[in-house]
Design goal:
The chain is of the alpha/beta class and 458 residues long. The protein has 3 domains: 6-120, 3-Layer(aba) Sandwich (Rossmann fold), CATH 3.40.50; 133-313, P-loop containing nucleotide triphosphate hydrolases (Rossmann fold, 3-Layer(aba) Sandwich), CATH 3.40.50.300; 316-454, Helicase, Ruva Protein, domain 3 (Orthogonal Bundle), CATH 1.10.8. Helices cover 47% and strands 14% of the residues. It is built from 20 helices and 15 strands. The strands form 4 sheets. It has a 6-stranded mixed β-sheet with strand order 6-8-9-12-7-13. Strand 10 and strand 11 (273-275) form a beta hairpin. Helix 15 packs parallel to helix 17 and helix 19 crosses helix 20.
């Protein structure tokens, strides 16, 4: 099951905070409402939000200063600011300072949800006072774990391609680490001190993609209440990752081709050409050559993107790297979940993971299996049966329930069904201890209580 996005919502007005919380929880998000900036800053490390939504005008700290603090804490956290018409200029300053988007009061629930969805589908990394040094260290190509022949070749290729501005096309199955490679290219390049912006083309609605990428002018379409820069502009002098690039509609592909060829773009509804200097990186789990043959992807765009191809092998083709990955994930998640010492794992479990499992979800599936095993271990040791259980859970999640006879499936119903079963299972294993259950599920106790009530588990 994909965990719900975790949102930290900050507003000093109780009524607005309740409105935002209810609206977002109804859409399935995990919401942590906070009224004071000091508490919000404390919660950044605890809940590790995917997105922060904050009012620009707070009594104990300005929204701009809060934005700087958040970006200094973690440049990868996206921030949406809420503003009144009178402070619209401040909101635009916030965008320049690294905010993902802004909302102007009063706004409709649909507008709120649209902005949140857009913010969660892209990442814009702008550094705070700490600069980019920590990220350069984190995404050093040498941190791509593995000593197999394939990984050694990849290290050399990343090192070479980072030294220039050539466009890169990264291919590979889902879960192989394509975004990690893209970030390694950026943080080992001359552009590392500038923005790294990524967008998941599969997660962004088709009708929003053009304005999100290229920006729009005020009044260019319904809801365009102000002129707004696109993500490509915000990545100026930095790098831009098109994740799942095959999902870009054909009419948007034509405009993207112009950016690659001419280094300029035009806002939706605009008349002026805008110069942009962006290093392009694209990633896909699909075969673009096949899509070109079917007329679903432009051939000229494919050749523009495929200047330097990098293919990531599936985990089953580099099994010798699995023990190293397991050791890394054990240390990382033991520390993340507050364990005094790294969890140990039996040799039989490592052997099963290396020699038996095929890991169709690749490194991402392996990572999830290790974290789950840590959460469900009671004595500090991971055994083979726990790995089998974690793999079984993943298989059920990815295969889903049986297809109804009419061929239709309801994503919301199936997701909620699995969530209910998982919560029931964890509550049973923790003997009804909600604090321990929330910790294992990596959600707040408040969110757990809400879901218990929602699914009538009491």
């Amino acid at each position: 099951m994909v965990s719900p996005a975790r949102l930290l919502v900050i507003d000093d007005e109780a009524n607005i905070l309740r409105f935002l919380t209810r609206a977002l929880e109804k859409r399935g998000y995990e919401v942590h409402p906070v009224m004071e900036v000091a508490e919000a800053l404390e919660k950044l490390s605890v809940i590790q939000p995917d997105l922060v939504i904050t009012d620009l005008v707070m009594p104990d700290m300005s929204g701009i200063e809060l934005l700087k603090r958040i970006k200094s804490h973690n440049p990868e956290i996206n921030v949406v600011v809420i503003t009144a018409h009178a402070s619209l200029d401040t909101a635009i300053s916030a965008i320049r300072g690294g905010a993902s988007d802004y909302l102007v009061k009063p706004f409709q629930i649909e507008e709120l949800c649209s902005v949140v969805k857009r913010a969660l589908s892209s990442k814009r990394i702008v550094y705070g006072e700490g600069g980019s040094e920590a990220f350069e260290k984190k995404y050093d190509f040498r941190n791509l774990i593995g000593t197999s022949r394939q990984m050694k070749e990849m290290h050399g290729l990343i090192q070479r391609v980072s030294a220039n501005d050539a466009t890169v096309l990264i291919t590979g199955e889902s879960g192989t680490g394509k975004e990690l490679v893209a970030r390694s290219i950026h943080y080992n390049s001359q552009r590392r001190v500038k923005s790294f912006v990524s967008i998941n083309c599969a997660a962004l609605p088709e009708n929003l993609m053009e304005s999100e990428l290229f920006g729009h002018e005020k009044g260019s379409f319904t809801g365009a209440t102000s002129t707004k820069q696109g993500l490509l502009e915000l990545a100026h002098e930095g790098s831009f990752l098109f994740d799942e690039v095959a999902e870009i509609p054909l009419h948007v592909q034509a405009k993207l081709l112009r950016v690659l060829q001419e280094k300029e773009l035009r806002h939706v509804g605009g008349l002026r050409d805008i110069k942009v200097d962006v290093r392009m990186i694209a990633a896909t789990s699909k075969d673009l050559r096949t899509l070109v043959q079917k007329g679903l992807f432009r051939e000229d765009l494919f050749y523009r993107l495929n200047v330097v191809p990098i293919h990531l092998p599936p985990l089953r083709e580099r099994r010798e790297d699995i023990p190293l990955l397991v050791a890394y994930f054990l240390e990382y998640y033991s520390q993340k979940h507050g364990l005094k010492a790294a969890m140990r794992i039996e040799d039989a479990a490592v052997k099963h993971m290396t020699e038996v499992s095929d890991w169709p979800g690749n490194v991402r599936e392996l990572e999830n299996a290790v974290e789950r095993a840590i959460l469900f271990s009671d004595d500090g040791v991971i055994r083979e049966e726990q790995i089998l259980k974690a793999a079984s859970e993943h298989s059920r999640e990815t295969s889903g329930t049986a297809m109804p006879s009419n061929g239709s499936r309801n994503l919301k119903t199936e997701t909620e069904g699995f969530e209910k079963r998982l919560i029931e299972s964890v509550l049973k294993e923790t003997s009804g201890n909600k604090f321990q259950a929330a910790r294992r599920l990596q959600i707040s106790r408040q969110s757990l209580q809400y879901k218990i009530k929602k699914y009538q588990l009491e």
